[in-house]
Structure formats: structure tokens, C-alpha cells
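Take a record:
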Amino acid sequence: MKAMVLEKPGQPLRAKNVPKPTPNPDQVLIRVHKCAVCRTDLHVADGELPHPKLPLILGHEIIGTIETCGAQVESLDVGQRVGVPWLAKTCGVCSFCQSGRENLCTSSKFTGYTLDGGFAEYTVADANFCFPIPDEFSDEQAAPLMCAGLIGYRSLRTAEPLNRGDCLGLYGFGAAAHIIAQVALARGLRVFAFTRPGDHKSQAFASDLGAEWVGASTEKPPEKLKSAIIFAPVGDLVPQALRAVDKAGVVVCAGIHMSDIPSFPYADLWEERQIKSVANLTRQDGEEFLQVAPALGLKTTTRLYDLSKANSALDDLRAGRLDGAAVIDLTGS
């Protein structure tokens, strides 16, 4: 089968023909239709996340159709359309799994990082970690929901409590922010969008989606935020966001990787402000979000790339040339 393969971090992906995978008894074989490109793919490709499986097929926002079910699979059927997220496997027995925090499992495995992912015609996945996809979403629309949407949803929950009329700041307005902004607006929150200084294109994108205020990350918002979510992997944004939130405000770091956070005065944290991080997701996150998303009429903004152009998709994401999400199209491969 055709695949784009990472042989060494820091090098472009290589187009290769690799063996079609065979599912284990608890897995399903999926014919990949679409696979969105996540900033985490960049972190893996650029060597910012350590110890990936090598060689590696990236991609963890997968939408496809099941072609074969392993002998032990009872929850899914051949022909069913499913999504495959970042979290690929957990042990089920560690203290984190037993307490409903499987996102912190000590033996977890991850799609497109420790296991091969979706930049290929076929992939295999644990049946217990696949999500049936609502009919309301096309493959292209659904792909970014598998990570950008899910992590955004978990980040919004981590930013609670939030009530109608509260101000939510979103730092970095890309794939995740443009999805979760729609959820926040539907809940009656007021969205303030922060972008890189001079990024007027992203600011216009945020404004078109309904953000009440848009500006540079270095700007002071017109009023204090109740909470802020940082999607950009920039540690310098943490002190800035702390200064932007009100007393008891929450700053959520949503990325799996971030540059170092600079020192800042204790006064910026005082008055019960909090800094939290979001790690991975749980299956409960996915199930809840995929119930909410169709009811809200979420729309994802995407740009399609052929599988052979996966490096171009990564480059465009790296350079900030995208509104919304890049999506790899495998239907013509």
C-alpha cells in the first residue's frame, strides 16, 4: 500500500510502498479516506517529541471504513465508518485508568507516534478506541474533529467554570481554536481571539467565525478574561495570558509540546489564578463531543492535500499558511 513514512525526525516524509497491515484479534483494518494534519504531527516530524516509533507513518485524525474485524471484535462492523484519535491503547489497570483518567495511563500508546497512523491507504486500530462518526459530517469535515476538536473540547472543559456572557480567550487561532470557538459561542460565551502580531488573515478568520474581539497576543484585551486556552506552542504566552485573566481565572495549556515558559512575577499568578495543562483525551471526551458536535452544526474549515503532498501540508502548517486544518485525501490513492 502507499504511505508517507517518517524515517528520521527532521527529514521530509518519504513516499513508500509498505505491506498492508493485518489486524490483531482486538483490532480492525480501516481503509483510510481522510486524515487531518495536527500540530503534534509537526512536533513528531521535527523531533520535538522524543522516542517515536521509527520508521513511522504519521497521522492521528483518521476517518475511514472498516474492511476487516479481528476475531474478538464485537462492537464494530465491516463497512462501518469510524474515526481514529491520538489515544490508541491503554492498560486499563493502572491507577489513572481505574480512576477515569485513562488519558494519563502509564502504558498508553498513541496513533501516529508509537503506532503507525493514517498517512497511508490502510491502518489498523484497537476497536475499543475507534469512534463511530455521525452521518452529519463528511469525511473531510470529520477528520479535524478527531484531535483538534477533541483536544479543544477537553481544554474547554478544563477551563471551567464558565457561564453565559463570560469572556474566553483563545491564543492561537488554528484548527483547534476555530472548532472550539464555535462550541463556546453556541454556549453563549464571548470569544476573544489572540494571534501572532501582524497575522491579519487569522484575525479576520476569527472575526468571521464570531469572535467579539481579535488582536495580537501581545495586546491587552479590552476587559479581563474569565479563562484562556493556549493552543499555540509558545511558552511566552503563559505569562501574557495570566495577566489577561481576571482573579480566579484559569489558563489552559492545550498543546502536547510547548517552548519553555519564562519566569514571571508571582503577582501575575496571585489572586487564585491557575495554570493547567491538557494531556491527550479520554474515550468519554470523544463520545461526549461527537454527540454535541452535530447538534451545534459545527463546520470545520479545511484544505485538502493528496497523500503525495503530505510534506507540503506539514510545511504550510509550520509556516502558519492555513486557516483551519489541513486534510490528507486518500480516496484517490
